[in-house]
UniProtKB/TrEMBL annotation:
NCBIfam families documented for this protein: four helix bundle protein
InterPro entries: 23S_rRNA-intervening_sequence (IPR012657), 23S_rRNA_IVS_sf (IPR036583)
Protein name, UniProt field: Four helix bundle protein
Signal peptide (from-to): none
Family matches, as SUPFAM superfamilies: IVS-encoded protein-like
Lineage of the organism: Bacteria, Pseudomonadati, Bacteroidota, Cytophagia, Cytophagales
Species per Swiss-Prot/TrEMBL record: Dyadobacter frigoris
Segments crossing the lipid bilayer: none
UniProt-listed Pfam families: 23S_rRNA_IVP (PF05635)
Length: 122
């Protein structure tokens, strides 16, 4: 099944939005400890930036702006993945509670990184 460029863009907009919504649910499920609150806020900031910044990518007015905004989105997706690893490895939440969201973060990161490497930023 082939998709048009517009269908792909819309699907990724929805996917990044769903990632943000799932991240909010995970944040709400964190324990009320001080470390969970601090790490959780860091995670939520970066995860919500993935969706917001991808929308900005879609509105870029030039190739240079597109590349710059896409680079920010890649960085935020990678940071989200980092905080998920910290949440798991620190014992804030068990791995089985975050595996699905980590997998989604990894897939989004791969898609965005590939798009960045294929884009012309001149």
């Amino acid at each position: 099944m082939t998709h048009t460029k517009e269908e792909f863009i819309d699907a990724l907009k929805d996917r990044t939005k769903q990632f943000v919504l799932r991240s909010i649910k995970l944040f709400k499920a964190l324990p009320s400890s001080e470390e969970a609150r601090i790490i959780g806020k860091q995670f939520l900031r970066s995860a919500s930036s993935v969706g917001a910044n991808y929308r900005a990518v879609c509105r870029a007015r030039s190739n240079r702006e597109f590349f710059a905004k896409l680079s920010i989105t890649v960085e935020e997706a990678d940071e989200s993945l980092f905080w998920l690893e910290i949440i798991s490895e620190s014992g804030i939440l068990p791995m089985e509670k975050i595996t699905s969201l980590m997998n989604e973060a990894e897939e989004i990161l791969k898609i965005l990184s590939k798009a960045r490497s294929n884009s012309s930023h001149n």
